[in-house]
Specification:
Layout (H helix, E strand, L loop, with lengths): L4 E9 L3 H12 L3 H9 L2 E9 L2 E8 L5 H9 L2 H11 L2 E2 L11 E2 L7
Antiparallel strand pairs: 1-3, 1-4, 1-5, 2-3
Protein name: L-rhamnose mutarotase
GO molecular function, one term: racemase and epimerase activity, acting on carbohydrates and derivatives
Pfam family, one: rhaM
Length: 112
């Protein structure tokens, strides 16, 4: 396995305390099929952070990962589609997102 590549992505949540709390609860017990699909895609590590209603996801991926392959695999996985539909009830696109865009890659502007 080569070096891991890191991506940081952002997304907003519906700005409602109860909705945010429910979203966090779902992430304390992510469905096993979802965890499996994440790992199978080449994602070695994933963390999600929140401040207010803004989310930031950090992914470390191996050489087998691509956003295109992940998207195709997700589209063919009914359980992932079910999870995404549920999550979308808590999430909202970033103000500058194109129609249907959810998690958007962030640009790295500094590294020590």
């Amino acid at each position: 396995m080569g070096n891991l590549k890191r991506y940081c992505l952002a997304l907003d949540l519906v700005d409602d305390e109860q909705s945010i709390a429910a979203y966090e609860e779902h992430h304390k017990k992510v469905w096993p099929e979802i965890l499996e699909s994440i790992k199978e895609s080449g994602i070695q590590n994933m963390e999600i952070y929140r401040i207010g209603n803004r989310l930031s996801m950090i992914m470390e991926v191996d050489d087998s990962f691509s956003f295109e392959k992940k998207q195709q695999a997700d589209a063919q996985n009914p359980k992932v589609q079910e999870w995404e539909k549920l999550m979308w009830t808590f999430q909202k696109p970033l103000p500058f997102a194109q129609k249907g865009e959810k998690w958007m890659p962030m640009k790295k502007i500094f590294k020590l």
